[in-house]
Fold:
Amino acid sequence: MTQVLSSAIGYPRIGENREWKKTLERFWKGSISEEDLLKDMKKIRLTHLQKQNNLGIDLIPVGDFSLYDHVLDTAFMFGLIPSRFKKRDYSITTYFDIARGNDESVASEMTKWFNTNYHYIVPEIQLDQTPELTHNYQLQYFKEAKEELGLTTKPVLLGPITFVKLAKGYREADAGPLLEKLVPLYIQVLQELISAGADWIQVDEPILCTSVSKKDLQLFKEVYHSIHQQLPGAKILLQTYFEAIDHYEEIISLPVAGIGLDFVHDEGANLEALKKHGFPKDKTLAGGLINGRNIWRTDLEEKLAQVEEILSETQSLIVQPSCSLLHVPVTVETEQELDPELKNGLAFADQKLEEVTLLTRGINNGRDLIEEELAVQKEKRNQLWALKQNTSDRLSEGTVHMTKRNRDYQTRKKLQEAFFKIPLLPTTTIGSLPQTKGIRQARSKWRQGEWSDSYYETFIENNISEWINRQEELGLDVLVHGEFERNDMVEFFGEKLEGFAFTRFGWVQSYGSRCVKPPIIYTDVAWKEAMTVKEICYAQSLTNKPVKGMLTGPITILNWSFVREDITRFNVAKQIALALEKEIKALEEQEIRMIQVDEPALREGLPLKTEKQNLYLEQAVYAFKLATSSVKNETQIHTHMCYSEFGEIMETINQLDADVISIEAARSHGEIIADFETHSYEKGIGLGVYDIHSPRIPQVEEMKTNIQRALQVLDPRQFWINPDCGLKTRGVEETETALANMVMASKKIREQIKQSVQE
Structure:
């Protein structure tokens, strides 16, 4: 057997102290020049490469780094700039305009990267466009690593078929012709890399882990045979992740030098196929053996046993994480405030690469030489398990829990209309309002003990009062308290529930420069005391208009956390749901009758294989209804969802039985509305009329157009007017201007409807 190599598929961009994020935001604010941006980004990039080298990784990836998003990088590299960006040049300004929008043009759509919490910019491919290679970023980064650090790295490209499948703007039948245009450009990129001295080149095709059709499989055969014909000696590593591959025999027969398989999230299917069908002797298997998506230390003894099974079927092996480490924090070493026993059981990106190299050494040099290190790892894992409680059956507590509302929607609707008396096309927001630098600083002072609880609470109440007044002045019909007391929509609730732990520096990238700090669920989840009642009731006391109670739903809390693995995720979801049910009852007891239970990540956890999706959706619906079904008929349950292909889960949305759902729709407004042309939906719905992820402020007429388009398929009596998502990240002035335009647009449409009825 040849020497086993260690490898990384991708590394977090953001840096230990989020220096990547801070650099981007300084540039966007005009604090640094483009030259300074590129200089600082290069420094960050090289630091990450050097760190991986110091950790002992043999195949260090380049091209996984990005100024915003790797899918956008691929589109930009091939000159696929949407026509509405009139300059259509290849400047950094245009690059960021596509991602964030500008005064004239809406940003490109953003959606989830498979079933993760990372968001990518959706490529827009127009058939009249001719792709061209504008700049070989991978070549630039490869040469940079070689010249600056003396490292021969492993270039990483998003594969052509996955790229096309993730794009929009073309018919399915046009996928083949599009690939005919793109593949020669990929060949050019690969040839330039090989000429520069690249050995292994990683080509990511995670689309292979979805339910691939026979037609798509044929595309893979044609594309990779074409590449092989032009570059017969290229050492291409065809990389998959997030699930098992179907069509195992056909895929391992593709003319590439190596195949990367996920042996963590495959539920044993990849290993079973390997043992059943073997592996080509002339290919290298890259085994994803360390979990790249969760943060628990690996049982390396178990992995050594798994490696023995793998090595019985292949002569050439690369050891690596199951996917890019983009989805986990950078290092656990900076977490000085965690319970030491919990900390010992955690492995972030750097620790996972240490596990990769330790496992590789054990394979190459023999288990005996790493026995001491294995014992240390085992002791750390045992300390973590000692922290866990025995899982209690919380579903058996007290009375039977309801998973069905007392009355059907139409009955509830009449009761709610009589109770709330809100106008046609009611205007509202999704929940959060601008969290200014002053608010963030205040929270920091309170957490550090510089401010007392009472002083901080007064500060929060002052902000709530100010924004209740502003919302009334703007003319909004249903108000929110603004969530000024909340750091993050999941972290806030996790801090108040049993079963959660929190890091200080455990940030991961969500989209662009937006980073989140997922909580850690390590033991049973339970409600302790009211979490939101005080602030919501204070806000409601300031106005006669309804103020929504704001909660994060059980599936979103689950999907946006690092979750324990000793019980099923569904059992954890049910524990969270029952905790939220108690909070909803506490709100109802204080006469809060509009309660929004947000599920922006409901679709995010959807399995990639279609045959597994129904069970997940059924469980998601059950958890949501477990939390919400015990409310009174007059209580109006709202929910909010983000970045989803809604037509695919319309029946699930209906089964949630929420009285009102708001959907993030502005970047893909026409497509979302088209879903409602083919799927009937009777309940209240708000299709976001403007995009909050962009600093661009749309005018009244643009919002009117969005509303009118929606009213072509929706009854005015069911349609709510709202922004796309929460306004936490937006500035005060732009928020007020945008909301004023939104209210004006709603009023004008409302008046038009009244006039048409009178006529």
Q: What stands out?
A: Residues 505 and 679 are 44 Å apart (CA to CA). The two ends are 85 Å apart (CA to CA).
